[in-house]
Amino acid sequence: MKGKRLSKDTNDTVEQMFNRIALRYDFLNHFLSFGIDKGWRKKLIRIAQKNQPKKVLDIATGTGDMLITFHKAGIQKLAGLDPSTGMLEQAQIKLDKASIQAKLKEGFCEKIPFSDNQFDLITVVFGIRNFKNLQQAFSEIHRVLKPGGKARLLEFSMPKNPIVWLFYKLYLKLFIPLWGRIISGDKAAYRYLSSSIKEFSKTIQVEKHLQESGFSTEKTHALSFGIATIYTGEKNKEHERKTG
Asked: What Å distances lie between residue 227 and 79, 149, 165, 217, CA to CA?
């Protein structure tokens, strides 16, 4: 399956980009977000724990941060999916170091390599803007969730406050590409990351796509003045009876 192109002037795919930056990905994540991303992940975990999930799949798992955080929260049945071999290699190293057992698989969300009705919870952290076909991806998430299971998605969003949005826009346009290039040496990667955040925040209606894929949506949680948002969809049991 071919990956999405980074831009019109490069032949790189998103998967190749993440392979290149895998070694420095964790440091850059925390540096470029001033460490705020750690708090966002913890918030997602706290919300997810309310339903006491026993089996969790983390999609776009990257270097495995969410899997490690879930394990610390007491969840033992864990799986991670990512299209980047470089990211998965780093995830496996971190999991082995922490003595954590998790099933890691290489693949795309548009064709999840798990059977139907497997998971109580599926998370995607800063990954849905990279999906090639959002509707198909959400339909696949719906398929592998158990009836009543939850999809919890953490993604960048557009702040409603115009002053916050102005500073956020400057941050995306100047700070991320500059420091991403300086630290990683990869100009194209962090230019893409910046532009993908801006375009996704402006155009994608996450809740609408969840509902069209059979989910019932719950209250969203805006984080840090709306810079990021947690979206939740529940696999609708009534939908399951009608289509199963």
From this structure: 28, 26, 8, 20
* Entry pTM: 0.84
Please answer whether residues 57 and 118 qualify as being in contact, where contact means their C-beta atoms are separated by less than 8 angstroms: yes
In three-state secondary structure terms, 154 is strand
Res 63: pLDDT: 92
pLDDT in tens, 187-213: 666 666 667 776 776 657 899 999 999
pLDDT confidence band for 76 (50 / 70 / 90): very high
Write the CATH number for 140. 3.40.50.150
Beta partners for residue 234, in sequence order: 150, 216
d(CA 38, CA 29): 9
Q: Note whether residue 27 is domain-resident.
A: yes
**β-strand 221-223 against 145-156: which pairing, if any?**
unpaired
Is 208 part of a structural domain of the chain? Answer: yes
Q: Give the closest residue to 239 by CA, choosing from 213, 205, 208, 209.
A: 213
What pLDDT digit, counting tens, does each position of 168-179 carry?
A: 888 878 777 776
Residue 218 lies in a domain: yes
Domain total in the chain: 1
**228-235 vs 215-217, strand pairing mode:** antiparallel
Tell me if 76 is assigned to some domain: yes
| Cα–Cα distance for residue pair 104/92, rounded to 1 Å | 8
The domain in which residue 35 lies consists of 14-158+203-239
